[in-house]
Input
Amino acid sequence: MAKPFREALKSGKFVVTSEVAPPKGTNLEELLHHIDLLRDKVDALNVTDNQSSVMRFPSVGAAILIKERGGEPILQMTCRDRNRLALQADILLAYTRGIRNVLCLTGDSIPVGDHKEAKGVFDLDSVQLLKMIRIMESGKDLGGNDLNGAVEFCAGAIVTPEARPIEPQLIKFEKKIAAGAEFFQTQAVYDLDNLKRFMEFARRCSNVKILAGIVLLASAGMARYMDKNVPGIFVPQQLIDELAGAEKGKALETGIRIAGRLIKTIKEEAICDGVHIMAIGREGVVPDILAAAGM
Amino acid sequence: MIVGKQKPLSEIREMIAEYQKVLILGCGTCVTICFAGGEREAAILASSLRMADKIDGKERVITEYTVKRQCEREFLEELDEKVKEVDAVVSLACGIGVQALAERFPTTPILPGLNTSFLGFPDEHGVWSETCSACGNCILDQTGGICPITRCTKGLLNGPCGGTNNGKCEVDPEKDCAWTLIYQRLEKQGKLDLMRQYYPPRNFQAVVRPGKIRME
Output
């Protein structure tokens, strides 16, 4: 059985998390394959929650599967699809099924997803969601009523170290810490100098644990696309050139090498407390990324 | 002001398909300012419908008129005779005006000629922006006079999401990130502490929908 994630965070070791994505439909084969492949290689596995506003098998369902198979799940919860009643109810369910880690996110906007005409809920925001967890731990719900059986979670949040402008983002980062965030997973970072600058700020205001987000770059095209289109992600030209210069059919291998190299540097220079690896659809190569990082 | 946008001609034609005598009724207030349903737009719509009917060889009487305000009972009295003469009215007012008319003339179908879009103001010539959600619990004193409930696509209360993009919103690069604007405004005022404080979840009981206010 996996160790509680909070213990891994407290141990002072270089923490590694990754993530799996629930399927669109009831065929769980690939999800289970990825869980079995990764559960012993990382300290915890995130489960995305209708990621990119695309309707899927629920994150709490997949987190239960991870738990049942001996892994340590981090339940991602966004505020986009559920109001405060539904969020609290899911937290109660998750707790009773042994899930002890939750990552609180605002959630992408509805129009970026595959149900563009749906209503975005956003009854709470990510800071309020963190606070909700802490209130429920005190034995109360958000209506001030007593819970018959409280919860306890290691709660985390996300931060975008390269958001532009950065100042409002840093204010929110501090608010998340004040609301109870114990760890952060960052948006993908490729420029380690920028990451270091963010970490200087982060260390000044708190000793909260920070895991650098590493998104696998599978091709030069993907790197260019992310650089241009994903807010808060900047891919240095040098990395794009490295991917573009890869031999035919070897771009993915190059991407794995880049990810491994970034992780290795972050670990060796102790820039962050760990990394969160997002392979986005290529979860099968996460062990190769770890190997490339010398782990 | 209330901002609306006229429905497409084809949709309005479908709505009036079964009626022989139709009154196009403009409103002289908000929708006049946003060029969607004032006297001028009523005249243009009426002549467009007449022209379309002519092309189709359809016999129908289309008249137009505009009142000062469709959303108040006293401005509707002058319509009693006019409405009696028609089979249906296409109202170019906001949804409030349509419903006020429907209440006064319960036996006449009152059809909406525009889609009421939002509460906002003219940003520049020909551009209107939504700025207020009529949430019933104004917090503009704490957000530098910029409403995050309305102007942030997610209505966030505690700062920007990760989709903030060089001061623009991830869902539409033409729209400003409300929280970037709030940050800049509060910084100028030396009041960034307002942004650092925690805002609890919204109280949706501030206005119990449908809202009703009785003078005390």
Remarks:
- The first strand of chain A starts at residue 15 and ends at 20.
